[in-house]
Amino acid sequence: MTDYLVRPDPADPRLTRRVSGRDHEGKDIETSVTMERPLTLFLNGQEIVTMMTIGDYPEYLAVGYLLNQNMLRPDDEITAIDYDDDIETVVVRTARKTDFEDKLKRKTLTSGCAQGTVFGDLMEEFEDVTLDADARVKTSWLYALSKTVNTTPSLYLEAGAIHGCVLAHQDRPLIYMEDVGRHNAVDKIAGYMLLERIAPDDKIFYTTGRLTSEMVIKTVKMRIPILVSRSGFTAWGVDLARQAGLTLIGRMKGKRFLVLSGEERVVYDADPASLGEEPSRHRRKGAEDDN
Amino acid sequence: MTDYLVRPDPADPRLTRRVSGRDHEGKDIETSVTMERPLTLFLNGQEIVTMMTIGDYPEYLAVGYLLNQNMLRPDDEITAIDYDDDIETVVVRTARKTDFEDKLKRKTLTSGCAQGTVFGDLMEEFEDVTLDADARVKTSWLYALSKTVNTTPSLYLEAGAIHGCVLAHQDRPLIYMEDVGRHNAVDKIAGYMLLERIAPDDKIFYTTGRLTSEMVIKTVKMRIPILVSRSGFTAWGVDLARQAGLTLIGRMKGKRFLVLSGEERVVYDADPASLGEEPSRHRRKGAEDDN
Questions:
Q1: Residue B162 and residue B183: Cα distance in Å, rounded?
Q2: Is the pLDDT confidence value at B194 over 90?
Q3: Is B111 on the interface with A (CB under 8 A)?
Q4: Among B128, B100, B110, B108, which residue's Cα sits nearest to residue B42?
């Protein structure tokens, strides 16, 4: 396996639980199910939201959430992040005074796995972002990346009913986050990138989820020029990707994929004929687990 | 095809759009993508939320959303539902005066495809519901239902990146709703059931999405005793189903499924050996499209 910076830990006993039940033949069985637990997020003195999460990286999740909601600015000085396991609370403290009473009053819900996103806010920066025009993605990287991610031991393979997101450089996956909510997985990566100072320009973002407007907006906000998914597109997702000049690659399975925006970044260096269809061992088994 | 009361209309030109792009060989292609459009919901004089939806049943969606958020009571007299296509607005009017200023201030986000749900509210009734203990589900119904749903022409089969929910009686699917947000599909069914006075006790709820806490809570609120999914379980979903006595059937593909709650309602009348594995033509092709 490649040397991930962060990867799933399916053996972590906090993340799954064994439950008993019956199978299709009426036999008693035991299976693993994914845990979800509440995490209440405070920004300085203010309660922002309670999220349901698997709970593995509360600090990254907290920071990434605030960043993606424009409640935290990339240049904000974070003075402390206090996570309290017992009371399931995380407090992010900043040098700058913050007040989001008004913002929290009006929420627009987005499609897919929306988190009650303050959508107008999400869009705030969108039009000002310029993505790296010189970034390239080789099809050989896409194939290698896809294979590595889909064969990496994960909660998904262990228990299903979970989303995955991966930040990659070329064909190497760097950070692989999973969560019950897809946007939590994205936010954990955004938080990691901010706190660990990871540059976005030469990165590829891979997700198991659909390429919705919200997914596109978050990728653009993170300034990552290439977004890849096994899943499909929505019309608005495609529109926004084109507007931002984001390379949008979807329905990536086996040798197949479609590019619906930013085609100029794709370098066709692999011979798809040598790949064939996706072998069943790479198929994400609980495919419909994605919501 | 069985006689659905409501079924997807993949030919509706409002619901998909053709877009051009490139495939894995670098060839120019055209494909269909699912539309998503904003719908702003008012309850009497108050703006409640803006949702992203495919837009096919705004009235059912509006009523189902309000009902599932406990903003509308099942016995409320609805005096009018005014949908305005141009300004993408739907107004639900009730005889009872409503005021949800306070409720809207505090939102708890749930996992999976949460809509910024007022989670505390969602739970309000949960503990008081008693589901029909005499309801039964035959495995032969499950297999037939699954096959019918998966071969019914749908936006999913046309464009992917969409969720489906089905209300069924025995092996007959009655109402098949799709939407970009899974919870929109559920809410459209809830709205339909209220407005068209469909009894829940002898029904089965089938979803393409995961069996999360929120999905379980909504099914229980709708008073449907049996919830079935192709997808997996979360731990809290299983806990809540057991608490409510809901029959929870997941990972249903081909002959296989698991029952993790309410096993006593399942009648094993089919011989799984005669079914084999799921034929690939029944596989939901864009499996990971589900979020």
A1: 11
A2: yes
A3: yes
A4: B100
B142 contact partners, CB below 8 Å, separation of at least 6:
B228, B249, B252, B257, B270
B108 exposed, middle or buried (CB, 10 Å; 0-12, 13-18, 19+)? buried
ipTM above 0.90, yes or no: no
Cβ within 8 Å of residue B137, ≥6 positions away: B204, B226, B228, B247, B249, B265, B266, B267
Higher-scoring residue by pLDDT: B100, A223: A223
| Residue B20 CB contacts under 8 Å (≥ 6 apart), including other chains | A260, B28, B29, B30
Show residues of chain B in contact with A235, CB under 8 Å: 16-17, 19, 33-36
Fold of A137-290: Cytidine Deaminase; domain 2 (3.40.140)
Interface touch B112/A24, C-beta < 8 Å: no
Q: How does pLDDT run across A30-67, given as a tens digit for each residue?
A: 999 999 888 999 999 999 888 889 999 999 999 999 99
Rounded to two decimals, the pTM is: 0.87
* Mean pLDDT, rounded, for B250-258: 95
What chain B residue is nearest to A247 in terms of C-alpha separation? Answer: B21
B247 burial level (CB within 10 Å; 0-12, 13-18, 19+) = buried
Domain B1-19+27-125+134-291 in CATH 3.40.140.10? yes
The label of the residue with tokens 């706190």 reads A195
Measured in residues, chain B has a length of 291
Q: Whole-number mean pLDDT of chain B?
A: 88
Q: What pLDDT score was predicted for residue B113?
A: 39
Residue A69: pLDDT band with limits 50, 70, 90: confident
Per domain, the residue ranges of chain B are: 1-19+27-125+134-291
What confidence score (pLDDT) does residue B101 get? 59
